[in-house]
């Protein structure tokens, strides 16, 4: 009777990623919300930079959730549904689903170990913050 | 004073249909969520295959619900609302309504006895899994 | 592969029961809300008498739902949970559960075919209205 | 940078546990709802036996959720909160928290790999069904 073996993001790793996302946001001169969830979509760490929009607190968390809940970055959703009018009209009503950029699954050895969501800047800026944070993974992989 | 007589899916039949949907999913090399509801839309059986997307747990159940709640497969909804801009804009906000493929009413002798919803693959793949499960009905009808 | 056979309340029978509940309410000089649901808990008929309290619209429907969802009259819930402090503290938070009188399963040949809920009078009065309506069943049984 | 390593219940193991819970319910002559969730509280498998109460569909799932969400069986909650009037009054409003028996964490090597919830019988009966299902774990441990 098989049991699945999963790697899951630790609090230490999550905090490190948030730090890196913040550094990128400061470099871009923006204030954002950053959320990290585990592979079950539950919040591990969160940080709202001074003056980051309140509206984006939930969006950042929903982006991280969406990323782990389907295993792809949120910016890949729109091209996917754009081909099917039915999906485009319907699936956007799914609770917590975000179909625009700024959410990424955090992967290690091909496995989703968590998710990151950034919200508060432009879609482009939010993605840059996520990508900066994801580079922390390289250090984990090298060990 | 008339009373209505309804046939309703049994737990045994629901479990058998889930098994068949899983077999099809394995054949297609995908991992999906499968939900079976009774004619009142209440969950009878559910199974999430290993690594099937979490996002699709609710979608599969909502597809099954939509199927019994209106008596048509979910992929028939979009062509229906596409003709009316008002419907297309408005009715998609209906709670639990899914307007894309992967949900089918389970019918016996022309009566809706339950519903099946599959989610996790492409729309096409989800439908194939449902259709494989629905073939179990033929055995019921032959008896 | 078994299929279940269920009797379900018809619209005609539901309307007849509402008429009887109203007659009883008029006799008691009260104004109530009366809800009839099918065996899946879905509303079949509803009537709010002039000046019946708005607060009781949902309560009447929840009473009818509770009755079919567990198969016992709502006034039997409190004696049941009163013996167990854990149940008494916890189960009352269940969505739509009503643990006071005024909801009854509608049974035919031992099967739950629907539910009735009345709200707007005292617990005692609500129950009397339900019981007056349930007498309609005798006519159905005699046929 | 540490990553956590988690064992998680598989679909195969979940289905096996549901089968065992059903066998126990049949032995007890009751009809119940059985829900198995993974360590993130997401549904893996569910089965409602014929004529099991609809009210208990959500309760069984919430019991399984509560079990993984705090790591203790649901029947241990009431003695815990009974000592503190504030907790007893307040914490029961927590979304999805069940403070009565019938939910257990599924543990392997001291780790919570999922949760089981049974609802539809008495608290005692629901617990017996869970415990029968949990015996499947012994086979996993022996391998």
From TrEMBL, chains A, B, C, D:
InterPro entries listed in its UniProt record: GlcG_carb_metab_protein (IPR052517), PduO/GlcC-like (IPR005624), PduO/GlcC-like_sf (IPR038084)
Pfam families: HbpS-like
Transmembrane segments: none
Protein known as: Uncharacterized protein GlcG (DUF336 family)
Lineage, opening ranks: Bacteria, Bacillati, Bacillota, Bacilli, Bacillales
């Amino acid at each position: 009777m098989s049991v699945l073996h999963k790697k899951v993001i630790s609090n230490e790793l999550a905090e490190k990623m948030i730090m890196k996302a913040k550094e990128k946001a400061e470099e871009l001169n923006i204030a954002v919300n950053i959320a990290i969830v585990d592979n079950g979509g539950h919040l591990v760490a969160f940080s709202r930079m001074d003056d980051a929009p309140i509206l984006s607190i939930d969006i950042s968390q929903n982006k991280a959730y969406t990323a782990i809940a389907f295993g792809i970055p949120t910016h890949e959703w729109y091209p996917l549904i754009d081909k099917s009018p039915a999906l485009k009209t319907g699936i956007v009503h799914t609770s917590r689903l975000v179909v625009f950029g700024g959410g990424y699954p955090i992967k290690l050895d091909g496995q989703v170990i968590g998710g990151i969501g950034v919200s508060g800047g432009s879609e482009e800026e939010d993605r840059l913050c996520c990508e900066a944070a994801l580079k922390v993974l390289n250090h984990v992989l090298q060990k």
